[in-house]
User: What shape does this take?
Amino acid sequence: MIQELTYQERLNRFEIAQETIGFLMAIRTRYIAQEEKKNKPDASLIEGWRIEFRGFFDELHSLDLKDDAKIQHVLDEYCPIVKAAYEQAT
Assistant: This one.
């Protein structure tokens, strides 16, 4: 039997998903800025990161507090990426 989430649990997961996507957007922004500082920036890399950024932006703004499956997808898919990026930076 699957236990129904309380409103507070659902809200916590929603906020964590929002923050996780926000971190991914920040990481892409940092990649773009670092590449643009180079003498010969790679325009294809920059464009790829901008596309990813827009995708994360759209995903962030389409999150729904009631969509447990989507929130779980964000947590499963993106939290490990953010964690690895943080560990690499420290």
